[in-house]
Amino acid sequence: MTEIETGGPRRRGRERQAAGPRSRLPEQKPFRQPQMQYAPTKVVSDDQLEAIHTASLRILSDYGIDFLLPEARELLAKNGAKVTDNRVRFDPEMVMETIKTCPSEFKLHARNPAHTLNIGGNWMAFGSVASPPNFMELDGTRHAGNRQNFQDLLKLSQIFNIIHFVAGYPVEPVDLHASIRHIECAFDTLTMTDKALHCYSLGRQRNQDVLEMTRIARQVSQEQLDKEPSVFTIINSSSPLRLDTPMLQGIMEFSARNQIVILTPFTLAGAMAPITLAGALSQQNAEALAGMVFTQLVRPGSPVAYGGFTSNVDMQSGAPAFGTPEYMRTAMAGGQLARRYNVPYRSSNVCAANALDAQAAYESVFSLWGAIQGGVNVLMHGAGWMEGGLHASLEKFVLDADLLAMVATYLEPIVVDEATLAHDAIGEVGPAGHFFGVQHTQDRFRDAFYKPLISDWRNYESWEEAGKPTADQKAKELAQIFLEEYQRPEMDAATYEELDAFRKRRVAEGGVATDF
Q1: Per-residue pLDDT tens for 375-393?
Q2: Exposure of 244 by Cβ count < 10 A (0-12 exposed, 13-18 middle, 19+ buried)?
Q3: Model pTM above 0.85
Q4: Which of 401, 491, 502, 483 is nearest to 194 (CA)?
């Protein structure tokens, strides 16, 4: 595809050393966050929501959660939780009193202030795919991810205005040793994009390294970083009912520094959670509440979000299913629960398709609809996720970016005023006319409707004359164009040198131990 990027702060794309006209790029709307204009869907009644809430508190009181980090258990015991060996049980009153300090809204600061995000309320932010171990080349070759693939997906994350943050490693670059992978990946993300980023909680030192690299890239003091959340981490409970050592260390490092923690139980109904949706949701909620409590004990008021990731499995194979009616309903219910606790909500755009086909499209549309109508604030895996998260795809990234842009247009308010009511234009056309030629249309036709990347609205004859382009072919062609037109965002030379010096020093030191 493209060679690994190793150039300095002012280096541009593969062949473009200086900014020039982007004649090959499709038109995009400017970078901005969508806002929810409609009431989120209530998929369960208020009484049913309270039943799930009560069931979750009973789980925490009767059964509890395993906390595998001793110092986490010490902090919990000091604040009234009941600790027996690894198991921690919570009084309902303690849970509800502790999470009162969770903020309902906060900002996620990017190194480019224009890309700083509002998290919570009716704001929405869309992220890239994250964490697949494999990558699908444009020629259809599927293989383990590498740094080149990782960087290609960073380029798409940067160049698409509808992608608001980098959600993690868009593909796992397994050619980078695990001891230094976080250092090299953070360096690539901070220099090849200027959008907000994520840090995996896989041990304290990784969190500390990424926080320091983010601080350098933003050129702020330690004190300012502690006031301005600039990185987020996803904390997955090991369902059922367990929080492991790296995840708890991540909470302690991030919450102590006032950075964003998104609690996301990965509860698959019938596998790691009860097969009934109500049972799976009550377990999801119990695990999320336990993690939220812990963040607030580490630092009251530290930013936290509620993550919903409950879906079902194929009961014959055990494979996770995504984009299903069950996923849609639990995504909406997760939003209701997040609003119950007045915290931001995370959901995902996911599918289980192996190829860029109808299944990939409709499962992603279902996932997106569940997330959007659930009132999502942070959308993970927004573009590029395939095969239940087992591979990332450049073509799927383009397709999803198109879907996200359509969603953003759907969320724009309808403008109703004297001009848009078009009374004079209707009178000018009169009965049995058309509006193509009137000035009211001519003044607005360029920006009147969403301009799709993938959809082909020509008639069959002109489509046939053009070579019968299909959606996957168009996505492949557009992916190549976007990669070639990518330009590295500028970074001050001194900042780049400081960041690069930190990277080289930590790599020379060997990074982190990889034997948890």
Answers
A1: 999 999 999 999 999 999 9
A2: middle
A3: yes
A4: 491
